[in-house]
Structures
1.
Amino acid sequence: MTAENKAGPAVQTTPSRESPAQTTQVLIVGGGPVGLALAAELGRMNIDCILVDQRDGTVGFPKMNMVSSRSMEFCRRWGIAARVREVGWPDEFPLNIAFVTAMTGYELARFDYPGYAERGAMSHTPDGNRRCPQTLFDPILQARVREFASVGLQYRARLEEFTQDADGVTATIRDLDAGGTRRIRAAYLAGCDGADSLVRAAAGIEMIGNPALTHNINVFFTAAELPGWVDHGRCWANWLVGPDGQWGNIVAVDGHDKWRLSMTGFREGDVLSDAEAAARVRRAVGCDFDFEVHNALPWTRKQQVAETYRRGRVFLAGDAAHLLSPTGGFGMNTGIGDAVDLGWKLAATLDGWGGPALLDSYEAERRPIGVANVTEATRNHSKLAALPRGAAIAEDSPAGEDLRARIRETIETGGYNQEYEAEGLIVGYSYDESPVIVPDGTPCVPQTVSEYRPNTRPGARAPHAWISEDVSTLDLFGDGLTLLRTDGGGQSLADAAEDAGVPLSVHDITDPEIAALYESPLVLVRPDGHVCWRGTEPAGAAAVIATVRGAA
């Protein structure tokens, strides 16, 4: 570990001279969805990398079940979007949200959202969001990663310590099954190892924010169906409100027989026996019924962001960099965004066309997104905590009717639907303040949490449009820069890119509607699909290319 490790000194392992270190370009620590996403991004670009994880690669209980529109676009990039749609949420299952005193009790309010079959295609993205529990999502991503020849997956392999120098990182890995330790030498190390990140601690990086908003317990159980469907219809989520306010929710994990009851209001260290967990499930549903409890897992709701995403040749991504309330489903999806941003920049640097400032821009771009998403997730949680409460909530009385009416008004007028309608935040984020984006002097395009406004202002995600029946503009963005042009220009940019050794592909846009959507005669797009420059034939093309590749 580095000398800056604030978690205590590490035991230094003296490597054997007979056991030289295994070498790779990137060592990824952590094999959850973010680590796998980074491995997929690097593997797609033929970068040699090794992923180590102390677990065996299986997922027992899913922490997430929403793959956002932006993450689905990245899944499309990796060739797994269709598989996620196939094995994930049933197309006919509605995505309704209900607020209830119990699933067989009073309905307080609801937001109705159609199932995927009824929703159909979304105009702003080729692949809209999909519910897919981590128990199904991780294996899909893992199987895809195994197909890349440049990626090695090493499970039951735990990072013990690492040191870094001017040329790379040397990590000591313990093989948990075979025993013993070995070394891996990498040019860069990526910590995707979650909330209790050893990489973060060893790099001496602090977390900023609230480490304990609430203490909670999740109960995972199976049941053929829940009695509440009879009264309120099928819902993806049922928020539970009692005399003391909102105290939990029941969500359908897979749209079939797997369910999760998530409860707040506990103290640190609290646990539930199986019998106590079953009693809580019955309280939430409001009656006895056939079900089986599988586990009751404590967890802590946090609001934290790492003070920095980089320390030398060591980077943080996912929960190692930001911890947020699950209200909104931003956690894993923010991490996948980290992985794509970091992945293409590592690849460009290792392939020789990324300049010395390119990797510095990772934090400049992703940390503000982390802060914004953590803040929004906490805002969603705070709304729930502010619901009116009272002892009469489940009474068949005037007092009960009045209280339930006040709760309904609060929900319907207080923006409680925003948690489920966040496409502006999910797709509309921009890197306009990044040092590797060339501004064009135009004003920022206002985005709200719920409303996405497509645009090509430098920093924004390049808009989706169908070029043909199954080819999106987003499918054009590959391993290097992409120039979309409507007037046949851009030769100076192509020449400057060639002189700098930057891979660049050129695509002519002939459809007038797509040309209008892209706003400028020339639009330069990065591998991650974000616009880095736009305009007419530039007088300083070399300076544009130098800036966007981090060499200005």
Note: Residues 76 and 523 are 22 Å apart (CA to CA).
2.
Amino acid sequence: MSGKTTIWLLGIVTAVVGIAGGVRRFSFAPADKAFYASERTLNFVRPGLALKILSAAVASDGTITATVRVTDPVGQPLDREGLTTPGVVALSFVAAFIPRGETLYTSYTTRVQTSPITRVSATQAGSDTGGTFTKTADGEYRYTFRTKAAPGFDAAATHTIGVYSSRNLNEFELGTSYASATFDFVPGGGAVTQVRDVIKTASCNGCHTQISAHGGSRRGMEMCVLCHTPQTVDPDTGNTVDMTVMTHKIHMGKDLPSVKAGGKYSIIGFGQQETDFSKVGFPANTRNCAACHVQEGPNAATQATAMYRPSRAACGSCHDSVDFAAGKGHLVQLDDSRCSQCHRPEGEREFDLSVAGSHTRPENSRNLTGNSIEVVEVRDTNPGQQPVITYRLKDGKGNALTPLEMTSLSFVLAGPTADYSAYWSEAARTDPPNPGGTATHRFARAIPAGSVGSFSITAEGYRNVTIDGPGREPVTVRDPLKNLTTTFSVDGKAAQKRRAIVSLAKCNTCHTNLEAHGRNRNQIEHCVECHNPTVTDVGRRPAAALPAESVNFSTMIHRLHTAKEQGRPYVIYGFGNTANDFSDVALPTDARNCSVCHVNNTERLP
């Protein structure tokens, strides 16, 4: 029996004894392989991986060292060679610094990549190779880099060590665990005052769940920016992979001017694998810079206001049809020194040349106050009766509105809420106002005979508002009513709302402000009334394009968010018989992670 087997058997005994004494249960999601493992296996293997860099130094001769602690998720040390604990742990290190007076990293650890396509060679930031490990304690290792800091390196500049790692647990059918960590320090001593913290990892994880790349081991923005620096170029395409430029261009994707003009944006990476981002669609509006550059709340980055510092690289990454040197699409700009003279952080009016003004959407104008509705009463709700709803309208400042002051106003009657199967929409703009600021709408459609359970009524509508738009030209914008759904019983039993399956808050984590159909439909409770199991797009689909597609909410949303993975066309015909092709849509996270959208474990079968 080998020493490794003996140690592992002792570990199993320990795990068994621990279970008998009540060892803590591990918490895994259904998307994790460990979710399906036995408690005995979990207590022995303790799947997962955690890293912490304890210290780092750069000696006067340029030798770089870092000490890292490697543990499982409950803090127990791991043997990186997998001899005394389950799973080999591979560790890779990166060293970089921020030159004083600058904001971006320069990496010490680099390699030269030669393109087999262009025969061009390019220097790229990457991990160190050929370094040595020294074990300093159980689970603790000092790594000495083969790469050295250049002679005369600035010992007063901020230096950062990054480590990324994988723990191979395939022999236990538990896959591979990944982790990354970074450590900031000043080699000459003293506090770290210069950092790069433009976008928090938590902001990325809002859509991506766990932002990672290159197989999953590089995790977090703090790790990414150490290699994705201006010094790193893809020699196959000539594209920089600097984090600022690359991230902007990826998220613009299909909306890049160069792509709209017939080009493509791709990067050729490891193994000459090309990744084409030309069909990427940002789930929020591309002018909503604050979706990533969060300035308030727990995800706020200390340098989030960097979005207000214009530069040719940052601005040109999205506006990639501009040639600053030739004066194409912009005045000639040979450096960044004068950018902020015209493009201040924020101007005195919306839609001006400031950074904030240039990215303002008319729909987000501060001149739009919003509209609300209060339901005072719903009566005549028995089968065969025509429901009557009494309501009160207000603008965002609390001023009363009459139905006629709305540009559009409708009520949707739908039921039953157990699983909607029918709905009717009726215009309400001409409803007569009542004394006291209310109005009343009687449905022309009666609740069907024999109906049981609960039904609902939802208000939708908007007011057209003219604002002073870009170039001081007047722009008419819809100021929508926030949908309000009222549920009532049609058989005398307690009213039952439709079960909550997803939440708008979860949708808006990626979409920021989810709206559809001219901004009229803006609450999930309303979407599911019309997008019910009985509805298809047959009424708007040309005969030549049959068969029809279901627009049932569960079917449509699942297919829409996984269309690219399914590898088959997915087209829905909508208003004006317009074809909406979702065939290239893909979630920015693993589609198996159902809890990204679902609430209350509703992704599980009853």
Note: Residues 23 and 447 are 57 Å apart (CA to CA).
